[in-house]
Each structure stands twice: as structure tokens, then as C-alpha cells.
Amino acid sequence: MSRIDLLLLLVAIVCALGVVTAQHHARKLTVAIQQEKDRSQQMEVEWGQLRLEHSTWSMPARVENIVVNQLQMQLPNQKQIQYVHVSPALLQEAQP
């Protein structure tokens, strides 16, 4: 075998190793992408569940039931309501 043949064989082996390495890296990236897609889908499902749970917990009828039964709160009668009048000048001073 001549030196040129040996050099070409060495170049071919190096190229083959480069192709194998690139394919391995591409497969690893494909697996990582699929894992992230799965994770994203799981998060979407969890987000939907959390929105549903939030809407359930914050239903006005449920809140009113807790306020009346557990906290024993009630609406004030007309005699208990006091109105506070604020002058427009005070409102302007309070704004940043």
C-alpha cells in the first residue's frame, strides 16, 4: 500500500467517525426535543387543571357560602354604612 492509499484510508476513517459522531449528537438532540415537547404538554395540562381549580374555588356562590357560614359575616344595614367624601384636590395630590 502506498502512502497516498494509507492517507486516503485514514481520511475515510476520520470522515466515517465524524458522520457517526454527528448522527449520535443529532439523535441526542432529537430525544431532548421530544422530552421538552412532552414536558410542555404536561405543563399545558397542569395549567388547564389549575385554571379549572381556580374558577371552582373563586365561584361567587362558594365564596358567599364561606363568608356567611364559616366567617359568620353579613352585609351591614343602612345605619352602619358611612360615606367618606374626598375633595378633588386631595385626589390629585395622592396621584404620583
From TrEMBL:
Keywords: Cell cycle, Cell division, Cell inner membrane, Cell membrane, Membrane, Transmembrane, Transmembrane helix. One of its GO terms (cellular component) is cell division site. Its main location: membrane. This is Cell division protein FtsL. GO terms for biological process: FtsZ-dependent cytokinesis. Essential cell division protein. May link together the upstream cell division proteins, which are predominantly cytoplasmic, with the downstream cell division proteins, which are predominantly periplasmic. InterPro entries: Cell_div_FtsL (IPR011922). The keyword Glycosyltransferase does not apply. It is a single-pass type II membrane protein. Part of a complex composed of FtsB, FtsL and FtsQ. HAMAP family: FtsL (MF_00910). The gene is ftsL. It comes from the Bacteria. Belongs to the FtsL family. NCBIfam families: ftsL_broad. The keyword Protein transport does not apply.
